[in-house]
Amino acid sequence: MSEPTANTSTTVTTPTPPATPDEIGVTPIAPVTAAKESNEVFLGGMIVGVMCLLLVILAGTFGYFGYRLWQEAQVERSTPSIQELGEKGVVEPVAETPAPAPTPATPAPTSTETPTPSTTDLATLEVKVLNGGGARGSASTLTELLKKAGYAKAAFGNTVADHTGTVIYYAASSQGDAETLKATVAKTYPSVTTSPAKAGDKDATAAAVVVVLGK
To answer: pTM above 0.85?
Structure first.
């Protein structure tokens, strides 16, 4: 006969998890966060800064009013009283004597030169009328007018170079003749002037008296 086989079984034990705080009945403590700590530090710094600013403002205010009081005290000390002014006497200002007005200078008398009258007979006076840039035919027209006025030897022509204005040039011995001729020429050319002839000027020395009709 066979013997019965023994029934052997293995039992596996599962570990029990630790109990939670709720199961134990203990209330968990909330940790203090870093953000809360930084806010408290910031607020504390602001309070300290405001207090320092208030102290500076108070110190400046007291200093300002103290300086004003010191200035007023100095002004009161430096200002003399009415009694002191009476003792010292008031100095009256000295009136300044006005300076005499300058005497106007007497203008020097101007000498007016009387032109030498013409000493040459008009019929024999050598006169040249030159066109120095004036209108075409103006020299010949003026020459005819001078001949009618008695200047029988008047002749016309052209200048070597252009001139400006109407000018009567004369030699040293013919100034009076030029002034007499000017009265006749001025009837046609009112702005005519007289001038002594310069040596070397071919136009101005073309005759004893030369009338140049310029531009």
So the answer is: no
